[in-house]
Amino acid sequence: MKEIYDKEHDVIRKFLSMGRRNIEMLEEIALEYKPFLMGKRFMTDAQLSERLGVSRRTLQDFRDRGIIPFYRLDGKILYEEKDIEEYLSSIYIPKY
User: Fold this and answer.
1) Same-domain pairing of 43 and 68
2) Is 96 part of any domain?
3) How far apart are CA 68 and CA 46, in angstroms?
4) Structure pTM?
5) Locate the Helix-turn-helix domain: which residues (predicted)?
């Protein structure tokens, strides 16, 4: 005779636990996801400011001085992640 499983059975508990963990991982991925446009990833002014730990005014100064490239789309400022990575690499000072 076949065994009947209820929600208290070990196999079912493990299965449900794995499902919860998968849902949590998917929620984390969804929070980290940034849409692609033309195969490129972009950040807003606020996102870059937070990530670099500088003020948005500092980013404005960088734009005014031509230090970092950016896109202006109907008043919205966007930075391509690759451009920011290249800029950070160019100012990197290795340890002695």
Assistant:
1) yes
2) no
3) 15
4) 0.62
5) 43-89
5 token code pair: 């499983």
Tokens at residue 94, please?
């290795």
Per residue in 74-88, pLDDT tens?
989 999 999 999 999
- At 29, which amino acid appears? I
Same domain, 55 and 70: yes
19-67 per-position pLDDT tens digit: 788 788 877 776 776 667 777 889 999 999 999 999 999 999 999 999 9
Looking at the domain assignment, is residue 95 inside a domain? Answer: no
CATH, residue 81: 1.10.10
The DSSP-derived string for 14-29 is HHHHHHHHHHHHHHHH
For residue 64, the surrounding DSSP H or E stretch is: helix 56-64
The answer to whether 62 touches 22, Cβ cutoff 8 Å, is no
Q: Is residue 62 part of a domain?
A: yes
